[in-house]
TrEMBL record:
Coiled coil region boundaries: 182-209
Protein name: Glr1010 protein
CDD domains per UniProt: DUF820-like (cd06260)
Keyword Hydrolase recorded: no
InterPro entries named in the record: Nuclease_put_TT1808, Restrct_endonuc-II-like, Uma2
Originating organism: Gloeobacter violaceus (strain ATCC 29082 / PCC 7421)
Pfam family for this entry, one: Uma2
Keyword Coiled coil: yes
Top-level taxon of the source organism: Bacteria
UniProt KW keywords: Coiled coil
Annotated Putative restriction endonuclease domain residues: 36-153
Amino acid sequence: MVISAQPVQYPDSDGLPMSDNTRQFRWIVTIKEGLDWLFADNPSVFVAGDLLWYPVEGDNKTRQAPDAMVVFGRPKGDRGSYRQWEENGIAPQVVFEVLSPGNTVPEMSRKLLFYERFGVQEYYLYDPDRYDLAGFVRRGDSLEPVEAMQGWLSPLLGVRFALADNGDLSLIRPDGRSFESYQAVARRAEAAEKRAEELTRRLRELGLEP
């Protein structure tokens, strides 16, 4: 009698929280949504936040959930996890981590080794409490540190990195616009709507139908 092996299960959650505090969460969302906005018109760029990435088929222990990741060459769409063998073997090329006080040096060292081993091309870390910004880019088989992140231009994203005078991270798109929080975008949209309503009212007072 042959007993068939049970199929390997790949959980969609690792049981860990997305963030440890509101500041970390705010930056994770700002970066992830900014990346979505950056590639909104490109159907072949997949962006995700806090999504478990399984690089090896049959191994559900080797995994990582970057705070944000970008995959060029894969379609947009919902996924429970990123199973690389189901994605034409394409690894996320760019990953971001936003640090919190709970992150340890050994933990972040393991993440760096994971991203290096499984093909990440660019890896960026931001600590919003200490105002530290670091980056690594692939050279051969290694992820090597970027010497100066102030003004650094990501080869794959086309985004320029900078730290403002107050220590906040600034990510500047190729069109010169910066990544913004949802609140900032919503406020600007609301202000534009109010200006349009005021212009419509004035035109009607002049007997013109807008």
